[in-house]
Amino acid sequence: MDYTAKLDDALNALHREGRYRTFIDIERRKGQFPHATWTKPDGTEAPITVWCGNDYLGMGQHPVVLEAMHEALDATGAGSGGTRNISGTTVYHKALEAELADLHGKEAALLFTSAYIANDATLSTLPRLFPGLIIYSDELNHASMIEGIRRNGGAKRIFKHNDLDDLRAKLEADDPAAPKLIAFESIYSMDGDFGPIEALCDLADEFGALTYIDEVHAVGMYGPRGAGVAERDRLMHRIDIINGTLAKAYGVMGGYIAASEKMCDAVRSYAPGFIFSTSLAPALAAGAQASVAHLKRDHALRDKHQTQAKILKTRLKGMGLPIIDHGSHIVPVIVGDPKHTKQLSDMLLEGYGIYVQPINFPTVPRGTERLRFTPSPVHGPDEMDKLIRAMDELWSHCALNRAELAG
């Protein structure tokens, strides 16, 4: 076997399809986000504006977060020193879990090194806790949910995206006595559409199923205290397990679940992804707690975030660009071809200092390749004007289709 040749074949296939992904070497500047410095392949540097980051509210630069992290770093040093079971549980971890439990109105919360690991570890462990469990999963659930469900060895049913009739049919077809769980998201990050949370909870009640929601793209940004869409819609009490991240709107790192005390206790006791992972650095836990606590009170930042998204969508629509608008903060512009999407991304970066990563298959279906913009409260009018001008010029330059101008 020529292993090197096989690697070449795999990588060349991505290049031919225009799906090969490149890392953009950027350095964020404290206090200047969304501005950053791009180190080009030739080693020279150029200023850029980041338009695709997940630091949705700019909390990764917030003085409250940085101060908490500095204090924890000076007090404890760098790493946690172990897993949660072996010397890696500190006052910072316990305080953050209490903050998150309070955020979601749950008895407890459980920290993981990322929301991906939280989804994977929890969903792969649940069938051990509920023998015979059947998991009903939305077809557009995140890869971390899919992987956890795939690995758990239990029964699974994939229902059509947000299709309540399809879900009902699958629930009706199974043994009424079997334990069940419905897994879905509050905001699906590629299209920015919302899950029908209340209707899903109604079905769960009717069929005796647990509910599992991924609020990764909503925590910090929706609801009176930033607990997510379920809080906004006053449905948190109907969700059994809530998954969230500390790496997006909260601007730090890590993931978690919030649930009953017994649920969290069982997951921490049985999930290998929790048991055998080194815990978050104390400084990260301290920064995340400060961010969560701050955003429980900072309504203005959330309001400005939504306003910025509305402005960007309105201006892009006004130019006839084909965007998807489901009313969330995510702004996808559909290009529809992987090579054109990569070309547009490169031209924006090299010609205008605007960084937006191309989104291609398998992250999105073929033919829906896109540029996904994530406006934030720290993107000012000048940055917005520059982006709009660049998109208008490049869309014409590349002779891409425009929709009828919005009325």
UniProtKB/TrEMBL annotation:
GO molecular function: 5-aminolevulinate synthase activity; pyridoxal phosphate binding
Family annotation (CDD domains): KBL_like
Cofactor(s) needed: pyridoxal 5'-phosphate
Residue ranges annotated for the Aminotransferase class I/classII large domain, each copy included: 48-390
Acyltransferase as UniProt keyword: yes
Gene3D superfamilies listed in its UniProt record: Aspartate Aminotransferase, domain 1 (3.90.1150.10), Type I PLP-dependent aspartate aminotransferase-like (Major domain) (3.40.640.10)
Domain of life: Bacteria
Name of the protein in its database record: 5-aminolevulinate synthase
Source organism of this protein record: Sagittula salina
Gene designation: hemA
